[in-house]
């Protein structure tokens, strides 16, 4: 069976598997004894009338308003469809949902002895997000052609593995490290074969990726333990502990799992770049030795290391922008700052991921040099 035929079979199987995994995951969730954390429903509603409005500019934040509105709301979905109620909508810095007549919003519905009680929850943002997703898919297919389509399928499969396989398995008591590594390996294998084809190059990239993300995870695990960092110190870690108690989630290992996921994309990129570059070099000059191919791969890799490490560090910094502003605003002392648990988590994640990227270069260069040379010797 030729490589092209194998690639098409894997593509077809992947497309079929995605909805099956999602469906099975939903069935598993339905059978679980899930505690009820929310005592209200969330449905779509429309603002029929603005009965009263008293708004003024926020004295601190530009372009924000504060005050209150009295709204006549009609529920459009769910079991309370058609229900109309006058609702007081208090607007402050933390709740900026200013409504106007005819606007569709999301409301919370609490059941009590007198019947349903509505409150304004959020703007209806889903249409905007759907348009953005459609734009992303359109751009990928228009400019990427077949390769863009393969990339979309690979992305959907990776998201399916982590959201509908890894997360439910963790909540079913599986160890986070084990299940994350398994999902990462399966995702990497499928993604590389779909994007790069069923060939030596993809095999090299898969091995390089595995080495890189495991190195990043191990470094994070070791230094996290030395710094007395646990999953509780992660963002939303305290809330996670309460959820974990209800489900029996093994919290230990979640930090390691988060590193694997966060660094996987960048490591995959570096690994495929090195694998492709060395393959091109070897095809142009098959007389090159393993040592010469390795040196060429390292030379190319040094140019990639800096930019990809920057990408990962900047991604972590972008996610922590609010924290950085708070630190600056409070004028914290360095001793207080450097020993903050949350900052330690961010630094360990960013630096461990970057080290994983750096180590991916020699790993992939060595694997590629050996495999390409051996395959043609």
Main sheet attributes: strand count, strand direction, barrel closure: 5 strands, antiparallel
The SSE order reads HEEEEEHHHHHHHHH
Summing up helix and strand content along with how strands pair, one would put the structural category as alpha+beta
Query: What average pLDDT do the residues reach?
Result: 85
**Outline, from the CA principal axes?**
globular
Radius of gyration: 26 Å
Q: What's the helical proportion of residues?
A: 55-70%
Beta percentage is 5-15%
Low-pLDDT segments: none
List the domain count as a whole number: 2
Number of strands: 5
Figure out the total of helices.
10
Spatial strand arrangement across the major sheet: 3-2-1-4-5
Please, could you describe this protein's structure?
By secondary structure, this protein is α+β, with helices and mostly antiparallel strands. The chain has 2 domains: about 40-125, OB fold (Dihydrolipoamide Acetyltransferase, E2P) (Beta Barrel), CATH 2.40.50; about 145-375, no CATH class. About 65% of the residues lie in helices and about 15% in strands. It is built from 10 helices and 5 strands, in the order αβββββααααααααα. The chain has a 5-stranded antiparallel sheet, with no helix packed on it. α1 (about 5-30) packs across α2 (about 125-170) and α6 packs parallel to α10. The longest helix is centred in the middle third of the chain and has 46 residues, at about 125-170.
